[in-house]
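Comment thread on ticket #2218

A.B. wrote:
> Attaching the input chain for the structure job we discussed in standup.
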Amino acid sequence: MPDKPFKRILLKLSGESLKGNRSHGIDPDSLDYMADEIKSVTSKGIELGIVVGGGNIWRGSEAEIEGMERASADYAGMLATVISALALQDSLERKHKLNTRTLSAINIQQVAEPYIRRRAIRHLEKGRIVLFAAGTGNPFVTTDTGAALRALEIEADVLLMAKNDVDGVYDKDPKLDDSAVRYENISYLDAIEKRLKVMDSTALSLCMEYSIPIVVFDLSKKGNLNRIVSGEKVGTLVAEDLVTEE
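C.D. wrote:
> Ran it. Output below, let me know if you need it in another format.
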């Protein structure tokens, strides 16, 4: 991890984290919980960008299996991320009076600003939370890759990959195998070669090429986000030139 305090971070939230115990959609209690956790970061003066997934509403890959043309299915998924971002924005503003902006890679100017890199950075510099919606604006690209790209564009110090009820990177799925072992540290190359589910391979390769450290952690455990930005060891660190530790 960097030997100096974080100045700017990119937080990737899965759509599933917003649905709570529901089978799909958005759970108000989960939104308010997320707002509380995010507030703990901004209160430290850290600049925060957030990429929100839309899997709680729509999954393009599943729609493709049902026969939908993949590009159209992915565009629908991008719209789902806009819904998730707007819901989180409302919770942040309503509960904590935080200053936020939603920037969309697809032009929907009635509800969100168009994504422009320099505008996003300016919002961050002014202390506003920036929610990045609609992925990269292109089909066949996941929100993981969108998060890696936005982290690069805003020059984030770290990419925080928030998981739901999974506290890091494991050698196998801990929900299916009780013998799964969690890694404390792992290099990008090991994560790719072992085909571990850190994020999709395109996103992980992008982070490796530009040396963006990744922290995979469980956001459902209260206070974890605050612990990370305070310098505590939480979850799994993915970075370059690391000795893999289980």
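A.B. wrote:
> Thanks. Noting for the ticket: Helices lie at 28-42, 60-65, 70-96, 117-125, 143-153, 188-193, 201-209, 224-229.
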